[in-house]
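Human: Here is a favour to ask of a fellow structure person. Comparing notes only helps if you start from a blank page. Give me a protein, with the fold worked out from its sequence. Please set it down just below, with no commentary around it:

Assistant:
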Amino acid sequence: MSDQASAVHGSDRGFAKLDLELNDYPGPLKTSLFGIQHVLVMFTAMVGGPLIVARLLNLPDETRIAMLSGTMIGCGVATMISALGLGFIGPRLPIVMGVFYIFIGPIVAISKEVSLAAAMTALIIGGLVQFAWSPLIGKLHRFFPPIVTGTTILLIGTGLMKIGINVASGFGTPAFAKPLTIGLAALMILLILVITRFSKGFIRALSLFITMVIGYVVAAAFGLIDMGTVAKADWVTVPSPFPYGGLQWPGLIAVITVVVCFFATAVETTGHTLAVSRIVGVPQEGWRIRGAVANDGIGSALSALFGGMALTSYSQNIGVISLTGVGSRFVVAFGGAFLIVMALVPKVGAIIALMPNAVLGGVLLFMFGMVASVGIDIIGRNLTSRRDAVIVAASLAVGLGIQAAPPGAFEAIPQALRILVTDGIVMGILLAMLLNLVWPKEE
């Protein structure tokens, strides 16, 4: 892309001004620190999925470790491909890959009904289907004008708030709602504000990393970190393919259910890829969507091959880039390499995994708020008619309404479709796309 074209497109970024552009390489030290920072914000979400599956299936420690290791290998390799590209695979954008929680239900159900090996087989099949239809999905960018892209980003940011507050409050853990937990989460938000307000350059760009390190130290001072798990962790582990047995047919309904889940990842990945493209100042082109969706598929198949979960691009990227001003894909590529190191050297992963939920949750809440603010910015600059307002209002009503629905609200919907219908973010995005397509542009 020419410098002139880049400048023209970059002018539409809104408030997201970058200190490090897409193809900037800041040197080995800064690249490594920024890369670790980019990954730390998302690490607990990555390992949380496998841990939930392991708990629901009551898996032995050896199997649980295999699932964690396979997932981290998949995340690391797919993140590097996402940033650097491999042929037509990968969008060549600063996007970290992680676990998509929509797959937890199908994995548990298939494992109980058939076997864990069959669940991994279903993920491999679904990943290959995702890879196969990526050229078709790549053409969807025409259905994502700014008003739809902005709505998509706003849905992602607000839709993820529930996850953020659950993590920050320690929901499901002994620390839930305790004063120290809430205090730590609030401290994280305060630290980000202070560092961002009173620092510049390198320090401000590392605001998230510095905040999490301080939170880690404070948590350790209050006795919230048990280093015994680090001592028990192995120094080196070598993941092996098919750790639960070879390929096993999971059944047609199981495959269809998993493919529906992959369609949901394709929709969300499309909106996410367009959003990151806008922030880093490159044209929102179909080949980037194709590369991102193809990477979802190949990364998921690779992860499942080594016993891990299915992957998708993580929305936290939008918040990290917007807040830190670091949009370099080489930084994210290093983050992918660091994920692989954590998979191969369990002691490193164990140290990171000890980060208290309150510390990470406070940072996540801020990140999701930043994601939502990017969406608001895009909508505000492109909301020019009642038609646009209707698209935004309807999409938010459906998307956020589904997120807030009480348990059991969708029991009447068949299980295979329920997985898709109960994902408020995906349904909101699909409605925004549909309304933009069928609603007349002139009233």
About this structure: DSSP finds 20 helices and two strands in the chain. The CA atoms of residues 387 and 443 lie 8 Å apart. The two ends are 37 Å apart (CA to CA). Strands lie at 97-99, 311-313.
